[in-house]
Amino acid sequence: MSIFEFDSNPLIFESRFYVTGLFNHYLPANCKFHTIHHTLNVVQSCHELGEHYRLTKTDMEKLLVAAWFHDTGYCLNIDDHENASVTIVSTFLDSRNLTENYMPSVKKLILATKRLGEPVTLAEQIICDADAQHLGAEDYFNWCALLKEELELKNCQELTDKEWSQMNICFFDSHRYFTDYAQKMWGGQKLKNLNLLKAGK
Predict the structure, then answer these.
(1) Which of 30, 23, 69, 36 is closest to 148 using CA atoms?
(2) Using the 8-state DSSP alphabet, how is residue 198 labeled?
(3) Which domains does the chain have, with CATH numbers?
(4) Quick one: average pLDDT of 153-171?
(5) Which tens digit of pLDDT belongs to each residue from 103-149?
(6) Torsion angle, CA of 139/26/130/110, rounded to 10 degrees?
(7) Best CA proximity match to 62, nearest among 132, 112, 25, 115
(8) 0.90 exceeded by pTM
(9) How far is the C-alpha of 181 from the C-alpha of 67, rounded, in Å?
């Protein structure tokens, strides 16, 4: 399903429009991985997982809003981008008088994507799995190259191929998909990608 086929929902459409504008105008040039393209991938994966688990309309709305906004904090160039993202989405929801009903859930969903976090609810598991979908993607190494470039620009320090491979292997070893669906859909390719990393490909 195209990303635009399900954002006919006014709130999701407005989220896409708002976030796209933020990325176009405020995303730092050193962000090569955490771009609108990664966000689109996360939104698409959240929708796929949410449909599979038959989330209610309201729960799906909250999930997709969180997916759209989960990396907007990078536009403020703040290391703790998750909390910055919460601030940004709070402003967005407040302007639409949705803060009281939506903000508690959306905040938890965004904060669940923190590295090494442990999601509690199904929706939190879904957004965490969607945020790491690229690990089990056939084009993983394209995403990997973008992330390497982003980290090198941020830290003003180049990484050798060996250093980068080892960092990724350690991350793969510490990561797991939480939902059965993600394990089924992306787990096999994730293992192939890990084996390629270990083989130095």
Answers:
(1) 30
(2) H
(3) 10-198 (1.10.1300.10)
(4) 94
(5) 999 999 999 999 777 899 999 999 999 999 999 999 999 999 999 99
(6) 160
(7) 112
(8) yes
(9) 18
Report d(CA 181, CA 51) in Å as an integer: 11
* Per-position b or e across 107-129, b if 16+ CB within 10 A of its CB: bbbbbbbeeeeebeeebbbbbbb
Kindly list the distances between the CA atom of residue 41 and the CA atoms of 22, 47, 160, 169, 170, in Å, as whole numbers in the listed order.
Answer: 17, 10, 28, 22, 23
| Token pair listed for 83 | 């909390």
Look at residues 129, 145, 146, 151 and name the one whose alpha carbon lies nearest to residue 45: 129
Show the tokens assigned to 166.
Answer: 């080892």
How far is the C-alpha of 156 from the C-alpha of 151, rounded, in Å?
8
